[in-house]
Amino acid sequence: MIKKINWGTAIVIFFAIFLSLAAIFITFAMRQNNDLVASDYYEQGAHFSQTIEIKKRSIPFKDSIKLYQTESSINLELCQNIAQKASSYTIQFYCGSNIKNDLSFNYKSIADSLNASKSTLVFDLAKFKKSYYSAKIIWWVDTLKFEIDKELIIK
Fold first, then answer.
1. Three-state DSSP class for 107?
2. Which residues on adjacent β-strands are paired with residue 122?
3. Are 133 and 151 in contact (CB under 8 A)?
């Protein structure tokens, strides 16, 4: 036999369940990582027009840079044009799940850092955690800055 619940009790039960679910959601939301991609986002926003010019200038090189994972390394293949003309470059790997796993590599001498047979940079896979990474490849030719973004999932 089903017991009838009066309307006052039903309202109290409804609000108790609603508040319980709200508390669970708030607890879940408070435990999430909300790190910023950049600590100086305001300054970067102020210079956004420069960023647009850098991105436009870099578009022809987008498909000539390849980023991939092998069994023991992460490889970044640069086209010969970049490898020969760039005076220095920086590769930044941003980990989507944890800012502590971000990595940055700076190179001043291109010849010392590249594989001689190809224009390939090799990064030790052990330095990376299994996660999604957004890679930013930055290089300078004379005083011009170029920048390409690539994505990588470490398995």
1. strand
2. 75
3. yes
Query: What is the tens place of the pLDDT at every residue in 124-154?
Result: 999 999 999 999 999 998 889 999 999 999 9
Q: What is the pLDDT of residues 92-121, one digit of tens each?
A: 999 888 888 899 999 886 555 555 456 788
Query: CB-based burial of residue 88 (10 Å sphere; 0-12 exposed, 13-18 middle, 19+ buried)?
Result: middle
Domain total of the chain: 1
Domain that holds residue 112: 41-153
Query: pTM for this one?
Result: 0.71
Token digits of residue 87: 């005076």
Q: Yes or no: say if 151 and 79 are a contact pair by the CB < 8 Å rule.
A: no
Amino acid at 140: W
- State the CATH number of the domain containing residue 80: 2.60.40.10
User: Beta strands 73-77 and 144-153: pairing type?
Assistant: unpaired
Q: How far apart are CA 126 and CA 37, in angstroms?
A: 23
